[in-house]
# Entry
Amino acid sequence: MLVFVNVVYFFWGLNSQQSEISEADKFLAEVAGLQQLSLREVEEPVFVAKPEEPVAHEVVVSLPVVEELVIDSCFLINGIASQKEAARLLSAMQAQQLAASLSRLLVAEEFWLVLPVADSWQQSLQDVKDLKTKGVSDLWLVPSGVDKGVISLGLFAEESRAERRLKQLQGKNIKAVMRLKQRFVYAISLKSEADLASVRSLLSEFRLGKANIINKISC
# Structure
């Protein structure tokens, strides 16, 4: 009986060793089938700096000063008969710092028959007597001005009538001549910020004549 037990124990131990060897061999076989692992260097992370946001600066802009637009109006004072009167008005306006200018307009050409000025006033008086002796009574001795001493024998609007009268005088041995006489009217142009009514009121102090007309014109 004891011998039988020992035999059984012997075979049980042998089977246990074979089983352990088989499990070990199996583990080694599995390990051999695995790929060999190796350590790889890990690159250090690269940190990209976030771009800085632009700093807002206060900008001061100087705007140009815009002056108020002033629109001038232009006026015309016409109907001034003489250059002397026109010059007086122009001088008075410019003395008041007004932007004024003078212009003239030819309105007529006349033909003037005259006996030229003599060497002296006494001679002119004698010429008047001589003309009346010859039957010429329609005459006038200019008493002053640039034509002082000239004897006027007629003023004609038409040249043909002037020439006809000149021949009559020459037929009486009168040494008359014909002059072209131009007649102008004068006007003053005025530039101002005021309106028409204000300009008329302003110009009242310059003693304008009744014939003077003030009109607003384009500049």
